[in-house]
Hints:
4 copies of one chain form a homotetramer. By secondary structure, chain A is of the alpha/beta class.
Amino acid sequence: MFSLAIPFDLAGVPQLPITRRVNPHLWMLQTGTDLRAGVQSGAVDGWGYADDIFAMATHAATHWDGLSHIFYDYQMYNGRDCTLVSATGAARNGIDKLSREVVARGVLLDFPRLLGVDWLEMDHRISVAEIERAFEAAHVEPTPGDILLMRTGNMRRARRNGGWDDYVGVDEPGFGIEVLPWLHEHDIAGVAIDNWGFEALPAGHPTIWLPVHAVAVVHMGLLLGENFSLEELADDCAADGVYEFLFTGLPLPLTGAVAGPVHPAAVK
Amino acid sequence: MFSLAIPFDLAGVPQLPITRRVNPHLWMLQTGTDLRAGVQSGAVDGWGYADDIFAMATHAATHWDGLSHIFYDYQMYNGRDCTLVSATGAARNGIDKLSREVVARGVLLDFPRLLGVDWLEMDHRISVAEIERAFEAAHVEPTPGDILLMRTGNMRRARRNGGWDDYVGVDEPGFGIEVLPWLHEHDIAGVAIDNWGFEALPAGHPTIWLPVHAVAVVHMGLLLGENFSLEELADDCAADGVYEFLFTGLPLPLTGAVAGPVHPAAVK
Amino acid sequence: MFSLAIPFDLAGVPQLPITRRVNPHLWMLQTGTDLRAGVQSGAVDGWGYADDIFAMATHAATHWDGLSHIFYDYQMYNGRDCTLVSATGAARNGIDKLSREVVARGVLLDFPRLLGVDWLEMDHRISVAEIERAFEAAHVEPTPGDILLMRTGNMRRARRNGGWDDYVGVDEPGFGIEVLPWLHEHDIAGVAIDNWGFEALPAGHPTIWLPVHAVAVVHMGLLLGENFSLEELADDCAADGVYEFLFTGLPLPLTGAVAGPVHPAAVK
Amino acid sequence: MFSLAIPFDLAGVPQLPITRRVNPHLWMLQTGTDLRAGVQSGAVDGWGYADDIFAMATHAATHWDGLSHIFYDYQMYNGRDCTLVSATGAARNGIDKLSREVVARGVLLDFPRLLGVDWLEMDHRISVAEIERAFEAAHVEPTPGDILLMRTGNMRRARRNGGWDDYVGVDEPGFGIEVLPWLHEHDIAGVAIDNWGFEALPAGHPTIWLPVHAVAVVHMGLLLGENFSLEELADDCAADGVYEFLFTGLPLPLTGAVAGPVHPAAVK
């Protein structure tokens, strides 16, 4: 079993202030120090408890983008009008609608190992040919409903000094819209990546910052997973040569949310 | 694949005000209505996005109790001092430490079906004999590391009118400390239940409200799962006679939290 | 000096769940129990500190409604389009724009004492004649820019048993739109009341629930203050016969908020 | 009337991550864009509303330190044990206990103007002699219960380029413990300053980072106000030569909080 989540805490992926997203904040409602001090209500001698609450952006840490996250031509997936996502949440396509599709066969595509590098360059744009070569190297055939874990090595690069160097709001390796037809033809259910913005950035589109999101989420209903931690799994796959596994990645079923924090795992 | 989570929203399991726990609150940072109104920053014509954050008690909705949740004799699991759980979180035994043990073989023990009732009475206390009979009825042997899903039917009873009648802060069916030796001998890794407080309540202990928690969490390191939704899975198990499955239930790896929201699943 | 605020905590005015408003939640970041236990980072022997954060709806507890709170004909005050209030807050008419107008002469109008009752009946609708009589009884003339504190006694009634009986979401005494011309002619800057919804409810309008809000906030720019605690001040005014005073009621200058929590005071 | 608060929003005084304090976050519950889109529940044509909630550290933005904020020798003000401040808040000395003392005569002491500079150097330590000279220059005598507004110009310096340059977590001008006897002898009720940490920093104490806090809050019960915006008031005082005024500065009465956000004002 390999955990594919980054730690959920304040030190997680830095957030751009303009987004108003926040990393997980944890606040204690009851503590052991209160118990020790004899001030915990309901405690009996040394018997007591701890309790807590937390707050976080759904897009902080490891998460799936929901099908209500992106709009194109004022519509979201399945032709739903964008105004169905209001201040009260997503009346359609909420993250709580995901379920069966995120327990599936998973396949790791390890591009840095394929190319013999530690990580892809920040301006590397993964091609269809590279995807097909990665499948070949993995001795796996794509099958409908697969969840693909695409390792760019970008998280490894960013964290090599312990922090998050040039990980957020900068250029990043990934793939562009030219790959989407291949994913569609092979009926891939979801793609998760060790990146912040999912796409190769800059994407090269004249007006739209994140064109892969626009096409994949709105038109294909493809699940996009961001900030997945793939290093430990990748080491194991390289060691045993087995790149397929049971993937489990059910996000919290937050009613009406547009993305879903998740603790995904690969079970080999 | 069977989802075992209740919906994560304000209508979830009622919270006792004294606990200061809160059900999931979802707040939108960006909406489709803003896009439609032409006031979303960065939008290009109909291309835009939605975004959100949420806050919740770790003990709201479906969750695992962590090994830092309960203290006995001023200690938590593994003899750690209670003062390691302070206002900054659990320095030891945080929920983020759970991982491999919650992807395991799962076994459903369906006590109402065993006893030919819709749900256990609110004062029913599950016995070791009933557990053993449930295993027999399931044609399964307990094995080390198993996750047991114990269905009392209490959630079905509470929700039969759509709300949560007599579910929280009242008597509930479950088991008592007399069952713990059996669980320990069979090296059960975790037990999840369709109940609010896990234990048979009132527990009958002269001073301690939740004695099963005290013994199971502090002394055994047993994982306790609360508010698991077991109805759909139970119907399926009754239909096909198969009561074992792959259980996946990784909580969000919230650093230092004393419990973990989770979207568990049974994969048959 | 008389404080006119109710306590800001979880026990404050009950919130209707449908509104998703929350009463003040206080969460500790650092505690004295941590210091005592020797686990507070940075502490030197017994030298240390406590710290905390809080969250609350701007409309919980004692507050001013801002001029971005209400829309009529898709406009807010000063003819601003309603779409200027988006998921990022009020781009116009935010509560942070209030300032000088809420430090002004204040006048208490004590309707229950005027009418010789403990509190107004829940279906009492304050008339212009009663307002004028209240001014006469106070030996005060209305002057432009006044802040009027209108005591209905409804908070006293609701809290006579310690809780909040029939205070929220029910009928309440107050005034109707027929009073607004008088307020406008006398150039009153704001009106605060010991009520939840400000208006006499039910308001009697065929389609609009809160017509006073619609006219007063949108068309007059009148400040409406809700959940003001007026009992102590009223007792003093009755004792010394002085019903005018310096009123100070600056809300927190929350950028872009549509209402403002405030700790108002009367200085006699 | 002069507002003495900085804006309450995300752009406020930067917070050191280690403190886990957060600047005001505003989240919308209802918006005008929802109304415009026709998706607001309860709206009638163009009649509708906006609503919001917020969260913030009590020590973010402009605030008073409460008498439960600091401990010395495991005690807070009035000899209360530090363990009275637990995960459930301050059982004693909460900020909600402040009231009358923060509506008082205020006196501005404008040290930069006294010394003929734009702002005090970051290593300037205000002396008793300078305080007495500032009173003389203001033609005011200190009286018991005064609130002193001590302008260092440090906020003006930090914000001269629009941001917050070297304002938080660095050296700052202010005063040291040698000034406290003078404040005590003159029975000053509170001191507010245009600084982040209140004290001259580094304070020069061998082990305690903030010795003025330790003595002033714990032993004297002196109110310390931080991040007060004094520029507009100071300009006015310099223009008319009047340095005394009515000061109003009631913090939100958050039950059990250790500090209090406030929108203070000077009324001349």
